[in-house]
Amino acid sequence: MKNDTLDSGTFSQNDLENPNETEDDGSDLTRDSDQREETIKCDRYGFLVSDQNRQGREVLPNVKTKRLHIESSRTKKWLKMLGDWERYVARKPQKVKRRIRKGVPDSLRGLVWNVISGIKTLKSENPELYTQLCARNDSPSASVHDTIEADIHRTFPLHVMFRELGSSGQLCLRRILHAYSRYDSEVGYCQGMGFVTATFLMYMPEEDAFWQLVAVMNRDPTNLRGLYLPGLPLARQAMHVFEGLIKIHEKKLYRHFVQENIAPSMFSQNWLMCLFTYNFSFDMVTRLWDVFLFEGWKIVYRTGLSILHATETHLIQKEFETCLMFFRTTLPSLIDGARVFQDSFKIPLKIKDIQNLEKEFQQMEGPNGSRK
Fold first, then answer.
1. Buried b (16+ CB within 10 A) or exposed e, 183-195
2. How far apart are CA 157 and CA 88, in angstroms?
């Protein structure tokens, strides 16, 4: 877990001169198991290298050195920018946008996510609230409690923080999810929230991860709350928009889906509900979240389209059952996360198309959110 802390939206150089170091690729972590020492190899994000869906792999020394040099150079620029964040955002928004799209240095990622989302304000306006929520004796409904407990053990089981029953990562995740179910009883808990929250926990302390969740659920430009409300209104709208964008940008593949009776919601619901955190390579996931927190939903649609474009030759050859199986099992391991993410910006996605599809969906909905 990255122990980045956030006290204010503007930082002095002294506050930032000792950022946490990024974990080395292929680093050995040890733990005691039945009085024996077991060696565990992880990728730079903490996922076991044996997890094929995470594409864990060794990095050649020259490639690693080049990556670390780039990371170091970007870190220096980001430290300077964080030292006067509000001025940079106000006066040089395009420069901030470019740097975010290039990727936030992993050692500063939790800190940057907190700053973008305004965690300082939320914490200062609600002192001790998280502690109070955790200490409350009242429990969420039995269904919410049971769903959280079931999902705790299914969330990133091949990450060092969450792989063991009763690990500190699982305990933190459980407290946050129960606290949020009390904070927003209308949402309570919905599957998908666990993966998003666990991603935050990889980069920041427990309380900051809670407020990061509150921010992305309730603030522009993310507003994820509708994704998890009863009836999943935002999820259904996002799937409608994404299907329309496939029809516009991937015509051949869309015709194949129609021919095979494959509704894009059959595979896109999982992508959208978890914001791609579930089983895609984490180099893509972290880059997507960098941009998503700053720019909003457009990058989510871009990434989905880029994934389809990258795997079109495989998908176009498959019939209904084999195609859906391919989405569930094989596709994530074929994705070069960095390449797919970079290629997503080449897609000429228009805000107008997204807005028209959102309006179309809303016109299809009845006054109570049900289809007319």
1. bbeebbbbebbbb
2. 39
Of residues 331, 332, 324, the one with CA closest to residue 279: 332
Task: Kindly list the domain boundaries of the chain, sorted by start residue.
Answer: 13-108, 124-222, 231-364
CB–CB of 237/206 below 8 Å? no
Kindly report which listed range (182-191, 205-214, 316-325, 360-369) carries the lowest average pLDDT score.
360-369
Q: pLDDT for 4-29, tens place per residue?
A: 333 334 443 344 444 444 444 444 44
> In this structure, which amino acid lies at residue 349?
L
DSSP code per residue over 7-43: S-SS--HHHHSSPPPPPPTTEEEEEEETTEEEEEEE-
Quick one: CATH architecture of 124-222?
Orthogonal Bundle (1.10)
DSSP 371: B
Q: To the nearest 10°, the Cα dihedral for 129, 125, 85, 220?
A: 80
pLDDT in tens, 249-287: 999 999 999 999 999 999 999 999 999 999 899 999 999
According to CATH, the topology of domain 231-364 is: Cyclin A; domain 1 (1.10.472)
